[in-house]
Write a structure and sequence with these properties.
By secondary structure, this protein is an alpha/beta fold. It has 18 helices and ten strands.
C-alpha cells in the first residue's frame, strides 16, 4: 500500500541591519527589528495562520487518516515568540491532535554539519529540547538545514540516536533508482533515509501558479491521479517543501489553499493510499538498499549541491571566519554573545552572498534585503568583525588579545563614569533651575501682600490667591 508523507519546513532568519565600518567597536546590536517583525507578521497572516487552520480542520475531519510533519528552526520559534505568539499557539494546537510530527534540526538553521561536529551536535540538542518544551515531542527523525546530507553526516546523526533522516532525491545520486522507496545510510544501515520526490513536490512548490506550464492549472484531482499512476510497487511519495508555499510563494489568489483543502479528500475518495509521518514510515517500512552519497547534497537549485551557500570566494571567506572562532565562543557563558552566535550562523546570510545570477537568481533574491551579493558580504563581515572583537575581549588567549581586552574594559569603564557624571550634572542643573523659579515666585507673592493692605473684599480675595500660588509653587 502506498503512503504519502507531507513535510513542511518553517524558518525565518534574524536579518541584519545596515552595519557600517564605523559601527565596528561602537554598536553591538546587529538586527533590523522593523524588517524582521514586518516579514514575520506578513507571512503569519498570509501563510502560517490560514494554512494551520486548514490543516487543523482536515485533521478533525480525518482524525485517523490525515497526517503531516514539520520542522521549525529555533530562530523561527524565537521570532514567533517575539512578534507572532498566535502562530506558535496554532502549531501547539496541531501538536495536541497527535497527527503532527515535529522533526529535529539545527537550532540556528546553520551549516555547522559541514564544518564543526561539536557545534552541530550542540545545536541539534538545543533544538530537540525546544521542541520537547513547546510541543511535548522528543524528535526521532532528523532534517538537516536545507536537506543537506552525506554519508558522513548521516553517520553522525545515527550516532546521536535518530532512527531516520530526510533528504533530497537528487538525480545524480539516485541514477536509475526511484525516490519512492525507503533507503538507509551507506555507512550505518540503522539510519533510514526518506528521499524527497522533487518532481511532484516542485509541481506544487514552484509550478503551481505558472500559467506557461503545460499542466496548468494544477488541481487536487489531477495531482492525485499522478500519484496513482506511479508504479504500484513503489511504497511512498515524499512531498517535502517550504511551508511558505501556501499563501506566500503561491498567493491565495492562485487557489493554493483550495488545493490543500481538497487534496486529502481526493486521496481518500477512490484509493487505498494513506498519509504517514516520517517517524511512522521509519517504523512501518524496511529499506530496499543503501544510498551512496559521498559528497553533500541539498534540495537547493538545479545542482542540488552546496553552491547556493558555499559557491564563491565571498561565501567561503565569511564561512571560514565565522567557524574560525567557534571553539572560543563556546568557552564563554555570556548569553548575549551566545545568542548573537546563534543568529549569525543562519545559512541565509551565506545564501544572500550567492552569485548564481542565471537559472536560480530569482530564488536567491526572495526576501533578500541586499542589492547585491557584495553588499551582503560587506555588511555581514562588518558585523562579524565586531562580534569577533567582543569574543576576543571576553575570552582572550594571546598577550596581545589580553592587552586589547584590558584596554577595552578601561575605555568602557571610563565611558560609563562619564555617562554617570553627565547624568548627575543634568540633574544638578535641573534642580538649580527649579530653585531659582521657586524663589522668584515667593518674592512676587510678598510684593502682592504689601500692596494689598486694605481689609476689603478685594484684598481678601487677593490674599487667598497668593496662598494658593504658594502651595502650587
Amino acid at each position: 500500500m502506498k503512503t504519502i508523507c507531507l513535510y513542511f519546513q518553517v524558518h525565518q532568519p534574524f536579518r541584519l541591519k545596515r552595519y557600517r565600518f564605523f559601527n565596528i567597536g561602537n554598536d553591538h546590536y546587529y538586527y533590523d527589528d522593523y524588517l524582521n517583525e514586518s516579514i514575520v507578521q506578513k507571512i503569519a497572516n498570509k501563510c502560517y495562520l490560514p494554512a494551520n487552520k486548514i490543516l487543523l480542520e482536515l485533521i478533525r475531519k480525518y482524525p485517523d487518516k490525515f497526517k503531516v510533519a514539520f520542522s521549525i528552526s529555533g530562530l523561527a520559534i524565537e521570532q514567533f515568540e517575539l512578534y507572532a505568539p498566535e502562530v506558535l499557539e496554532s502549531f501547539q494546537k496541531l501538536a495536541k491532535t497527535g497527527n503532527v510530527e515535529f522533526l529535529s534540526e539545527t537550532y540556528s538553521h546553520s551549516l555547522a554539519a559541514l564544518k564543526h561536529k561539536d557545534e552541530f551536535q550542540l545545536q541539534v540538542n538545543q533544538h530537540a529540547e525546544k521542541i520537547l518544551e513547546l510541543f511535548g515531542q522528543k524528535p526521532t527523525v532528523f532534517r538537516n538545514t536545507e536537506l543537506i546530507y552525506s554519508d558522513e553526516i548521516g553517520t553522525r546523526v545515527a550516532d546521536m540516536g535518530f532512527k531516520a533522516m530526510i533528504t533530497e532525491g537528487a538525480k545524480h545520486v539516485l541514477g536509475w533508482k526511484s525516490p519512492n522507496y525507503l533507503y538507509c545510510n551507506n555507512i550505518n544501515p540503522k539510519l533510514k533515509i526518506l528521499l524527497k520526490n522533487f518532481k511532484l513536490s516542485d509541481d506544487i512548490a514552484f509550478r503551481f501558479s505558472n500559467k506557461g506550464w503545460p499542466e496548468y492549472p494544477l488541481t487536487a484531482k489531477k495531482f492525485v491521479k499522478w500519484i496513482k499512476d506511479t508504479d504500484h510497487k513503489e511504497e511512498m511519495i515524499n512531498l517535502f517543501m517550504d511551508y511558505e508555499t501556501f499563501g506566500e510563494h503561491q498567493w491565495e489568489e492562485t487557489k493554493i489553499f483550495d488545493f490543500l483543502r481538497s487534496f486529502p479528500a481526493e486521496v481518500f475518495k477512490s484509493s487505498k493510499i494513506t498519509f504517514s509521518t516520517p517517524g511512522e514510515i521509519a517504523v512501518n517500512y524496511q529499506p530496499v538498499s543503501a544510498i551512496n552519497v559521498p559528497n553533500p547534497i541539498s534540495w537547493a537549485d538545479e545542482e542540488r549541491d552546496l553552491t547556493a551557500w558555499l559557491g564563491n570566494d565571498l561565501q567561503d571567506d565569511a564561512y571560514d571566519k565565522l567557524y574560525g572562532i567557534a571553539e572560543k565562543v563556546r568557552k564563554t557563558d555570556d548569553l548575549k554573545l551566545l545568542k548573537d552566535w546563534n543568529f549569525l550562523q543562519a545559512s541565509d546570510h551565506f545564501y544572500y552572498m550567492s552569485t548564481k545570477f542565471f537559472s536560480d537568481g530569482e530564488v536567491h533574491s526572495y526576501f533578500n534585503p541586499y542589492e547585491s551579493p557584495y553588499d551582503a558580504y560587506i555588511n555581514y563581515m562588518n558585523v562579524l568583525s565586531d562580534f569577533i572583537i567582543r569574543v576576543q575581549s571576553a575570552i582572550p588567549e594571546s598577550n596581545r588579545e589580553q592587552e586589547i581586552a584590558n584596554l577595552t574594559k578601561i575605555i568602557e569603564e571610563k565611558e560609563r563614569l562619564l555617562a554617570e557624571a553627565h547624568e548627575k550634572l543634568k540633574t544638578f542643573e535641573s534642580a538649580k533651575t527649579g530653585t531659582r523659579s521657586k524663589k522668584t515666585g515667593t518674592s512676587s507673592n510678598t510684593s502682592t501682600k504689601t500692596k494689598n493692605t486694605e481689609p476689603d473684599k478685594k484684598s481678601s480675595i487677593s490674599q487667598k490667591k497668593n496662598k494658593t500660588e504658594k502651595v502650587i509653587s
